[in-house]
Amino acid sequence: ATKFRDTYSWKEKRRQVKARDKNLCQVCLIDKYNTNYRYTYEDLEVHHIIPIEEDYSKRLDSLNLITLCRYHHEMAETGEITREELQEIVAGK
Question: Does the reported pTM lie above 0.85?
Answer without folding.
Answer: yes
